[in-house]
What we know:
This protein is α+β, with helices and mostly antiparallel strands. It has 35 helices and 46 strands.
Amino acid sequence: MPPEYQPLIDPDLSxxxxxxxxxxxxxxxNQGGRVVYCNRKVELVTGYQRSEVLSTNFDFTCLLDxxxxxxxxxxxxxxxxxxxxxxxxxxVITKAGRPIDTVIAVSLIDFRGQPAVLGVVTDISAQKQMFxxxxxxxxxMRQFLDLAAVIMVALDDSGHxxxxxxxxxxxxxxxxEETIGQDWFESxxxxxxRAQVRKVFQSLLTTTSDSMNSAxxxxxxxxxxxxxxxxxxxxxxxxxxxxxxxxxxxLDLTEERAISETLKHSETQYRDLYENTPIGLCRxxxxxxxxxxxxxxxxxxxxxxxxxxxxxxxxxxxHHLTPSVQLMxxxxxxxxxxxxxxxxxRMDGAGIWTRMxxxxxxxxxxxxxxxxxxxxxxxxxxxVERKLARQTELERIVTRMAAGLVSVxxxxxxxxxxxxxxxxxxxxxxxxxxxxxxxxxxxGHRIFCQWTASGIRRRSVHLPTDEPGAFPKVVxxxxxxxxxxxxxxxTFAHPDSLEGRSFAACNVQSFLGVPLMTPQGCLGFLxxxxxxxxxxxxxxxxxxxxxxxxxxxxxVSHGEVRDGMQTRLRLYTQTTxxxxxxxxxxxxxxxxxxxxxxxxxxxxxxxxxxxMIRSLTVLPSPVLSGPYQWSGRGDTxxxxxxxxxxSDATIINRLKQGEMVHIRRVVPSLDGSVMSDxxxxxxxxxxxxxxxxxxxxxxxxxxxxxxxDDELISVLEIVGEVCVRSLDRIETIAARNEERRLxxxxxxxxxxxxxxxxxxxxxxxLSRTLLRRLGLHEMQEVIGKTDxxxxxxxxxxxxxxxxxxILQTGRPVLNKEEKETWPDGLEAWVSTxxxxxxAPDGKIIGTxxxxxxxxxxxxxxxxxxxxxxxxxxxxxxxxxxTLSGGIAHDFNNLLMGILGNTELALMxxxxxxxxxxxxxxxxxxxxxxxxxxxxxxxxxxxxxxxFEPLDVNSLVQEMARFLEVSIPxxxxxxxxxxxxxxxxxxxxxxxxxxxxxxxxNAADALSGKDGTITIRTGMEAVSxxxxxxxxxxxxxGDYVYFEVTDTGCGMSPDxxxxxxxxxxxxxxxxxxxxxxxxxxxxxxxxxxIRLTSQVGVGTxxxxxxxxxxxxxxxMAAHPTVVPGARLGQNRILVMDDDEIIRxxxxxxxxxxxxxxxxxxxxxxxxALLEDDSWIPDLVILDVFxxxxxxxxxxxxxxxxxxxxxxxxxxxxxxGNATGQMPGVHYAGFIQKPFDVRSLLTCIHELSGxxxxxxxxxxxxxxxx
Length: 1264
């Protein structure tokens, strides 16, 4: 029994009951968190029945108000730590709600064999009321003194304060309690005046008259400030003339003196303000000459000193454009000016804008004495206003242009653009303004709108005409979306350079260009030229001009879209008509129909010529197969254009690769002469169903190229394919029908996803399974679409890359595993194979792919990987546990030697010796080390547990309320406990340690900041998949859990992987065994832990326990161990393979009167057994000797002396140590490291066994 517990109550409790029932105070006994006894006084005072108070569900803290309840919990926590708690005042609340003031005295006692708290509650309500009455009388007496506006203080003859009023405490900045009893001179008089003031006080004491004494001196407040006080003092004596006290009244003169000092410095401060103000100040005489000025006014005019200004007439201060005479007359007339903007003139002649306020100072007769001026420099503000006005004007032009383009008819937009282009150019001081449209190829940039000032030559329509790359840097920057500002062309480009010559050809001195930007890119630019002189432009205005460029670009883009729509309408009409006519044509009229349709199509597209080449061969000189053409310049010109294309091997190769060719060239005639016209050509390749390659040619005979979009390309491809298909339909129709029949059978029946794509990765056909998977019903819904129409951009981009690689290389992609997200959101893994789709001539015309769903296979592989990783983690934790257990066992053996020798050393040293204190510190350190090894053994699962049915809710609440005292007040505990939870089987002490560690860690994670710790209990059904995220897997089923969640800093994934490793910690202090021990305890209870954490959000630990199977039984009280008689001459045999431990045990036992023999191993034991002259009465045996269990040694001892008691020792606990020795009988066990007192107590308990020891007192292993 610990020394702090005293057996105050006799076992039969009769005397205690008699005393408690007759006691005038309330008496109660609290044990295990509830009241187990109370006297009848409790019923009389509180109104609660004794049965209510003794009920297991009664919370005894409900008898206290909230402050008293908190104080009581702190007292219980102190008691639990073995500290003395003195009697304290508490407020008890009766059942009727009436408060009672009490004093409660508590002490720790042994009650019915268990520790308990005895409390005696004394009612002090009457005493408290008496004290309150006396305090009210005292307060009434002091009220009249507190009404005084001066200090009232009474001192005794030694100068100590007897009384002070409220005014005095306010001035001294301390309470009356802090002042009364203090030495007035030592506490409140500055040291340098203390002697003089005390001298005056002593002289006052010797005065016999009742006259008042006056004096002034400083007093020092609690915060160290000095106050000047004027005192009037008198001596108060009793009827016999004896001194009672000195009463003084003091008037605080501190503020009065401070005001006087302030007035003395006011003039200096005013002068500093006058000189250092950021406003210019000036004084003029009646004649208008400067009398004085401050520094800011002098610097504002560019002067150095006031001497330069004195006597200067006012008209010389004003700018020549400022009407200074009228200004001064107005000042004289009205007497003041406020906020008038006036231009002054600096000494260097520069003008500055100012905002002036002025007033006239007159005498009592109204005569002007002088003028005072306050001047603020607003030159920079005026410049900002000028820029804002310019920006506003430019914004007005841009807004007017935007509004005009929105409101006018499409054909009238050019007039609006031309009008506002002039306004923009004039605004920027330009001599020429123009709009340039970029072409498809270099050298095709065209000016489509232009304004020039009078006498300025216009730019050429084409920019440039014959020099591609004339403006590489300018055009490149504009195409990137940047504005280009060239203040001086001669510094930008050398006159002899290509760019320099291009600008010089237009006489450009300065150039400003902003891009015509649309969401699709840059269409061109808006340019402004300065021809007469060079100039620079402000960046803010250039940004607004760029806005005008975007407005114009929108109009241009809108117009092109409108023109394109009209062109597409004509194109679609003509394409449909052509397809119908070709479909109805026969071979005899196919050529005439083709030529006629080429002409009609050329007119629809608005080009000068069009041709279709049905087939391209690989012969050195390509042969025209079926030339179908129309040319606005005649067939001869068209033939020359076609030949120029077919004779160019580079163009043919590009066409064969499926690439569209866009070129600009001078076409030679058939006779070798050079034509004068530049031709812009677009050659579009196509492939027919029979594998033949052909192309469509379009040309314009002009310098500016026409534009072609994807829709036109698509239609032209269809035109080429339709033409070839119409010509070949007779010989191919039968073969195509057969192919289609076979393909339909395959595509309808296969369960795999099969698809065909063309060279542009557009779907040609899909299997029925894939069509349904895409959520479609008809094949036409998917033909012509790509992966971008059904899948994510990432997936579609990768598929396109794979298919383009197949088209270019011809190498298939086989069994590629990839993850797909279908349109309905379902994710699946597929194994994809793609091969090139070839025409009969071997040319790759697309791709063919098969995808097979392997989702189940991938999930199985992922499952195996997760299981393998989890097994590795479990094996690591088990290995660490085995290692920790072994280290702890060996370390306990070492600590045994340290503790034994320190105790022996303490026996040889008196407590008063300094050496005794140092040795005691060594002992305490060793004991702390033994606690560390205990935690290591807990992590290793080598701690014995006494399982019993436990109520998780009660246990969690008990520990949480116990820890509330030590948790910072900023942390809030939130309980979310589920009712009616099943009991669990567990060791209450160990489970409490788990709860305590988790709540303590949660509080540490909050670092003292505001936060919440949520404590939750409940039931959870754990499935096979649900156990994957647990530290250790559980058998599927229902589990009881409790959870601790904090809103602290959270943990990174790396820390989460290591958090349960022993000796790993994230705290500045700590050994990293807390959570490791928690994991060991939970494993020993057949449970596990789920950890979830997120950095910056918080951490949650959920601990699972299986529902209990044990039945609740009444726990018998533990019997008190009564030490037996000392052995005296008894002989003890010590068997241990550690020399230090043997030596310590020998000295300890011999000092206590025992005869000791030491045995180091089994061979020495056998030698001892042969000697009958020395028979031991007790054996102290180490369980592990030489790394092996000492089973044979115990067998040899019992064979020789069957009734000999054996006391086992080990660094492990009893359960784990004796588990290595199944079937071995022993009398007792003591775990290393143990102290001398524990060893002797154990020997005394076994002393009665020395004559007749039952062999079955303790058994291990299977014999239990």
